[in-house]
Amino acid sequence: MKTDYPHIIEQLKAGATMLYPTDTIWGLGCDATNDDACQQVLKLKNRPSEKSFIVLVDGFPMLERYVPDFHPICYDLADLATRPLTIIYPNVSGLAPSVLAADGSVGIRITSDPLCLKLIQGLRKPIVSTSANISGEKSPASFGEIAQQIKTGVDLIIEERTTEQMNQASQIIKIGLNGQVEVIRK
Length: 186
Known about the structure:
Low-confidence stretches: none
EC number: 2.7.7.87
Subcellular location: Cytoplasm
Family: Belongs to the SUA5 family.
Keywords: ATP-binding, Cytoplasm, Nucleotide-binding, Nucleotidyltransferase, Transferase, tRNA processing
Oligomer: single chain
Number of helices: 6
Helix content: 25-40%
Mean pLDDT: 88
Strand content: 15-25%
Structural class: alpha/beta
Shape: globular
Organism: Taishania pollutisoli
């Protein structure tokens, strides 16, 4: 079955939530600038509102639109990463308030996954990428392990790579305003 990307993108523009394969694990997502859609993802995950989401972008130009205090060391970190790398940036702007942590920071990853790139480039905005599980439960390693509550709670399911095992979360690094680096998850 061929994925109808134009339809999916129109739905995301209208505030839909989705279940989709990412460059790391199965994710729940939506337009990262649409607070109503982000609130739906929070509700579906039963996640505390003070926890931020990870956001996917298609490259540095999009990243720099949302991170006004972009430190140049981030170019090197992204270039040297051997697997997907999420960087937590301070003082992010232009994203939905419910995407951000209480201190205004958010984790952003530049994805190279073809499916994710089609969604981001079609939407022309970042997308939320949070694990497809109820908050506090183990992240599913396959489509079959995703809770029925999640599958029935989203507006869209992108049924690509449903037979693949996907269980490697991204590395997470936090960047300070002065370029200090803190490893959160290896």
